[in-house]
Amino acid sequence: MKNIMITGASGFIGKNLSRYLLLKNYHVSGVGTSKNHPFSKEFMNFEWISADTTVQGDWQEKIDQADTIINLTGKSIFSYWTPKYKQDIYNSRILTTRHIVQAIKNGTGKQLLSASAVGIYGHCGDALLNEDSEPGEDFLAHVCRDWENEALKAKDKNVRVSILRLGVVLGNGGALSTMVPAFKFFAGGPLGSGKQWFPWVHIKDLEQAVEFIIEEQDLAGVFNLVGPQPVQQKQLAKSLGRALNRPAFMPAPACVIRLFMGELGKSLLQSQKVVPTRLIQSGCDFEFKTVEDALKDIFKK
Fold this sequence. Notes:
- By secondary structure, this protein is of the alpha/beta class.
- Helices cover 38% and strands 19% of the residues.
- The chain contains ten helices and 14 strands.
- The chain is globular.
């Protein structure tokens, strides 16, 4: 049984991934700032460590017991970006990753899967983006670039490092929890023109891709963890409307988004036509190849 440590295990992705791996009989140690975790009572093979990972501490000693570390810690970007909040977004990712790498002993042969985001590419219009595409220059691109560089330092300790550039993860919770209420009240629609490309992935495909990377001994490097068929915002809105049996004809004007959401709003209007080239080439399959199928599955009940 492999021992896996997951930082950020109480978040939407972390909780779903923890449950998936626990049911696959991995031993999971979760780390986060919550005092308790519900899985502590539900699973015998789960251990919860309450800690602030932006600060060095006893939690780092647990890294020595892990075969694989999955680093998901990062403050949510879905809030108004004051200068202080932007610093919190940055520090939560960079400092946690730095402390993980510092605690790994040289030559122990561990594996590190560290989250990043497709935001590293910035606004790219209709250009098709794979793992070799150049990074952007905006705030999120800067955060992702530094985040990845901190994780890649573990290679100097003979660690097998994989960078997971995540798209928007679709499931019961997470980003959809902020989108669904508008549609349920007949006020849903695309952001701005709706022509922007929207990088997405079903939570189930994320879980399976992570296990695929863990178990394939030769896999390492950068992976775009997104669905195989990119979709534009307007098509996403139509698909979400169909899944909820609600109309999707009320777009949010770009000028209003920028006015009320500031720099975050500008980021949400970016276009990133990202494809999971390296995962597909490595033989990883996707259960949900279209956003329509993904949303049907999520809302089938």
